[in-house]
Design brief:
alpha/beta; Rossmann fold; 2 domains; 7-stranded parallel beta sheet; two-stranded parallel ribbon; 43% helix; globular
Length: 356
């Protein structure tokens, strides 16, 4: 092995077959890191120079021990998570997001790997604050995914309290957007592509923050050099109204779509009923937040890491829509990929499309 190979920094990325993990994995490879990916899903980048792909479960302590024994990681980026709209088994979601997080941290600590970056979520809340949400605001999740992400944060905090030499930075993120981001967004994109009405609940004046995937990857790289444990909120600047953002994408796409409004109370009631009947991909978080504003305060990460966002909501959404438009047929044929890398099932929302 060459001298250069010995000097190549190595990192572990969990969930690097998924959307964010994949963006981060490829960014790290471009930056000269050797990357190991552990994911339940096949790694489409397997065989790339500098990449070790391990298809396996982060709840498998034996697998984790072997991976850490075979490498000398400088840090761990924990991106793996089960999403509520992609998992029917609540126990699988909880144990993957909570137990899996704890086991990854324990394996890192046992191997002497003392830096971990944990990706968390804005789903820790399900109401608007009327102001930017800070790291000091108390989380109040309303559904299983949000509760699992909060408990994962608490598991890591408990480990850090017992082992302060183990440095964990948690990044709480709003919806992550870039070219290739699909999931529930694919439903919106199909409406725009087909020239259907794009619906907002209420008057569309709510403002909901996103984060550009590459901006989040930049923050992850900065966290690897950070010497402390901390919690950071991250997100875009100059968050537009939902109506304004949709209209911007529609104009840029040259679509015949227009934005139309649904009355708030009856729409939320119908969303709740559809969720109970299991005919909608949208859950409690979505029907609570559908007409709420939610923006993270990002002052702490700017001050501590010198980080700043580079893309607006409109710019990143247009990137994601353009990818969908160019690859629609292939996207709807995908199966063995992560939830954010394929189109979410439309369910009863298809009726709304037909009425549009």
């Amino acid at each position: 092995m060459s001298k250069e190979a010995f000097n190549t920094p190595e990192v572990l990325v969990t969930g690097a077959s998924g959307f964010l993990g994949g963006v981060l994995k490829r960014r790290l490879l471009e930056e000269g890191f050797a990357v190991t990916n552990i994911d339940l899903v096949r790694d489409e980048d397997a065989g790339a120079e500098g990449l070790t792909s391990v298809q396996g479960d982060i709840r498998d302590a034996g697998l984790l021990a072997r991976v850490f024994a075979e490498h000398r990681f400088e840090g761990v980026f924990h991106c793996a998570a089960m999403l509520a709209h992609d998992v029917k088994d609540d126990s699988l979601l909880w144990t993957s997001n909570v137990d899996g997080t704890r086991l990854v941290a324990e394996a890192a600590l046992a191997a002497g790997v003392l830096r971990m970056v944990n990706i968390s979520s804005n789903c820790l809340w399900a109401e608007g604050f009327g102001r930017p949400v800070t790291e000091d605001d108390e989380p109040a999740p309303v559904e299983l995914y949000g509760r699992s992400k909060l408990q994962a944060e608490r598991e890591l905090a408990a480990i850090v309290e017992r082992h302060p030499e183990f440095k964990v930075v948690t990044l709480r993120c709003p919806t992550i957007i870039d070219s290739g981001r699909l999931g529930l967004l694919a439903i919106l994109f199909e409406f725009i592509e087909d020239g259907k009405k794009v619906w907002v609940v209420g008057d569309g004046s709510s403002r909901y923050q996103f984060i550009y995937a590459q901006d989040l990857a930049t923050a992850c790289l900065l966290c690897l050099q950070y010497e402390e444990s901390n919690l950071f909120h991250i997100g875009s600047d100059d968050v537009p109204t939902m109506r304004g953002m949709y209209e911007s994408v529609i104009r840029a796409a040259g679509s015949k779509s227009r934005v139309a409004s649904l009355p708030r109370k009856p729409t939320v009631a119908m969303m709740q009923l559809a969720h109970r009947l299991k005919v909608s991909p949208l859950g409690p978080y979505h029907y609570r937040m559908i007409a709420e504003s939610f923006v993270f305060d990002t002052q702490r990460i700017r001050k501590e890491l010198g980080w700043a966002p580079t893309l607006t909501n409109e710019a990143m959404m247009l990137r994601a829509f353009s990818y969908y438009s160019e690859n629609r047929k292939a996207i709807h044929a995908r199966t063995d990929v992560s939830a954010h890398s394929k189109a979410a099932p439309m369910g009863v929302i298809r009726l709304l499309k037909w009425l549009s």
